[in-house]
Design brief:
The structure is a single chain. By secondary structure, the protein is an all-alpha fold. It has eight helices and no strands. The protein folds into two domains: 66 residues, no CATH class; 66 residues. It is elongated.
Length: 157
């Protein structure tokens, strides 16, 4: 007897893979698979949960989200999307925390480089300016304390 399987949310939303892809990435070369803006909006309403689960995480949002749910926010482009959403408080706490861990690791990697390379590294990894300022100030304070701590340690010997 064949085993019954549950339909996935992808199957149950009633959208084709091409339609889901367009909700994620936008129309390919200006050619929409939807026949009207109303059909696109209706597809977003039906597929929002699936599309957001698949592609609306880690500081990224699908193009349909930008079109229908972003309000006054304007898509800043892929390279700045994560910091843009972070700075505007759009991300969930889990997303914010995960990105801060990733960005802190990249910030620490950049600390071993010169100023120009450091700035390029921060930009490449889209680290928000507010975090760069905060972590840079903390690093400067730490460096300023190090010589005094080394002198105290030497004097204690």
């Amino acid at each position: 007897m064949p085993r019954a399987t549950a339909r996935s949310d992808i199957d149950s939303c009633g959208l084709t893979y091409s339609e889901l892809q367009e909700l994620w990435l936008g129309p390919r070369s200006g050619d929409s698979v939807f026949s009207s803006p109303e059909e696109l909006r209706e597809a977003w309403e039906r597929g929002r949960a699936v599309v957001m689960r698949l592609w609306g995480s880690h500081g990224r949002r699908p193009m349909a989200w930008w079109e229908f749910d972003a309000g006054d926010l304007q898509h800043p482009g892929y390279d700045r999307e994560r910091s843009y959403l972070y700075e505007r408080g759009v991300l969930s706490e889990a997303e914010r925390a995960g990105l801060e861990v990733e960005w802190r690791q990249e910030f620490d990697v950049a600390q071993r480089r010169g100023a120009v390379e450091r700035r390029a590294h921060h930009a490449f990894h889209d680290i928000p300016r507010e975090l760069v300022r905060k972590w840079s100030a903390s690093a400067r304070r730490r460096r300023a304390r190090q010589p005094a701590a080394a002198l105290e340690e030497a004097a204690a010997k």
